[in-house]
Specification:
mainly alpha; 2 helices; elongated
Amino acid sequence: MVWPGPERVVDWLRAMRDEWSVLLPTLDLTAPSTFPWPDRTVGHVVAWVNAELMKNVTEIGQLRLLRAAVR
């Protein structure tokens, strides 16, 4: 995956959200996870991934706001 640049990042993130939304219903959330925690379920990993994605998108949004404020 290649960084699309500041002009296209919002569209890029929305496209990834759409892909993730299509994938989620196909997963067996009760199945055992093999990575990164073999003693957890796929649901645990999905929850962790969602938290990481929210954190990253929030950070990108804050940086975009800061950049716009100094222009």
